[in-house]
Amino acid sequence: MTRPLSAAQRRIVEEADPVTGRLRGGDAQLARLVLMKLAFRHPRPPHDHFLTPAGHRIREAGDEPERAGQPPPPEVSGGGPFAARVGGEAPGPRGPARAREVRSAWQGLVEMRRMTNPDGATDRPCAWERAHLVQAAALALEAAGCLPAEGNAGDGYRVGGTPQPEAVAVRGYGPDEIAGCAAALERAGWQVSEHAEPRSGGRYLLASPRRS
């Protein structure tokens, strides 16, 4: 088991910016948090330190990391302790705990945009999102408060792949739900267009990560 955070380290984590995760503290303490996989040093000047998704979880929930040297679990992939809900899964937990997980995962993704987009932009998707379209779109929807379909239920969104490159399909129960999903994705930096199913006439969205 890893050593618990010292009082100074916990204070640095707890005082992190709640949105960006930016940290302030002594060089030695910040370096230790990086070794513990709870923070990273931004590669661009002024090389500030920020919480990783695991660090965000500790700040919000008061947890300790489980194993020394173990990298933080995937936050926005399809597996691990956090999984973006694409719709159609078995009913899962809702409430404050799930809301914290989603918020932490979204904050981690925003930081990934800041780190990997050439200009550091956070208002459009990054390469990771273009490589994980379904999970990235589902996370954007859940982070915006949209609700995924559970099991075979008719209501809620469902996100799926398409034959088109860099495009996902989002289906919902009714026009209001479709409109809400479209607005959420556009705010998250996706290009969205609405279409009709060839046979049923039902409406669905095609969404692609915006590049500029």
Low-confidence stretches: 63-81
Structural class: alpha+beta
Global outline:
elongated
Number of domains: 2
* Total beta strand runs: 7
Biggest beta-sheet profile: 4 strands, antiparallel
Biased composition (Low complexity): 83-96
Region (Disordered): 62-100
Give short descriptive properties of this protein.
212 residues, alpha+beta, 2 domains, four-stranded antiparallel beta sheet, three-stranded antiparallel beta sheet, 7 helices, 7 strands
Give an account of the 3D structure.
The model is unreliable at 63-81 (pLDDT under 50). It is built from seven helices and seven strands; from the N terminus they run H-E-H-E-E-H-H-H-H-E-E-H-E-E. The strands form two sheets. It has a four-stranded antiparallel sheet with strand order 4-5-7-6, with helices on one face. The chain is α+β, with helices and mostly antiparallel strands. It has helices spanning 7-14, 27-35, 53-61, 96-116, 127-131, 133-143, 175-187, and strands spanning 22-23, 39-41, 49-51, 158-161, 168-171, 190-196, 203-209.
